[in-house]
Amino acid sequence: MRYKITVEYDGTNLIGWQKQKEGPSVQEFLEKAVMGFSHQQVEVFGAGRTDAGVHALAQVAHFDFDGDLSEYKMQESLNALLRELQAPVAVWKTEKVSDDFHARFSAKGRGYIYRILNRRGASPLLVNRVWLVTYPLDIEKMRQGAKYLLGNHDFSSFRGSGCQALSPIKTLDKLDIEKFGDEIIFTVEARSFIYHQVRNMVGTLMQVGNGDLLPEDVKRILEAKDRKQAGISAPAYGLYLNKVVY
Questions:
Q1: Among residues 10, 51, 212, 226, which one is catalytic?
Q2: Model confidence over 124-157: pLDDT tens digits?
Q3: Which residues contact 114 (CB under 8 A, 6 or more apart)?
Q4: How far apart are CA 24 and CA 21, in angstroms?
Q5: Which residues pair with 211 in a beta bridge?
Q6: 51 given a catalytic annotation
Q7: pTM of the entire structure?
Q8: Residue 96 phi/psi, 5° resolution?
Q9: Which has the minimum average pLDDT: 21-35, 60-74, 133-147, 155-169?
């Protein structure tokens, strides 16, 4: 039986989604949880490989299980073991799916949010949850710069080193910037993203907001197809995977 799970996690002390030789990962915790209650060794496939420090509100994954537990029983069993492992991970939705479903390859779109706290003082309650920017940001200028990024482009200027994607050409469907009190929220959606694309776009737009760059500089940077031309990379802890569309 193939199970599709929707997972929330705090990435602060994780090395990311993918299991590696050193450090705890989301994938490793989930696989250990299955092993813990069933003694089955499974491979859990995720919709996206979030980096160290990145959080998720709705990461989607799947695995094949030798047995036919109810969705309720599977979810309760996974969460009981995740609590026992003291994992910063929880499963909040479980579904039985057909054998042709794949968390990564069946996905038609992905969405992220990025949170900036824009005020002088830090928030003890939001440590490792937001990027604290202490100088004023002009949200209207940031929105003007963001318009240049919408649509189908070569995003080489926003591509992180070590990117394994075959092509830097992606279609950005949504890049909204909204302000809620002291928080500025970026909502970004596309079928897929290249490595560090969202963080590099947010860092560049932040520099538009603080006056280091002009809105029209974003167009120049995009057309340069050169990472050195773009702005800084926003820190991982402000980023959340919040949507996978099928």
A1: 51
A2: 999 999 999 999 999 999 999 999 999 999 999 9
A3: 131, 185, 186, 188, 198, 199, 202, 234, 238, 239, 240
A4: 9
A5: none
A6: yes
A7: 0.95
A8: -85, 135
A9: 155-169
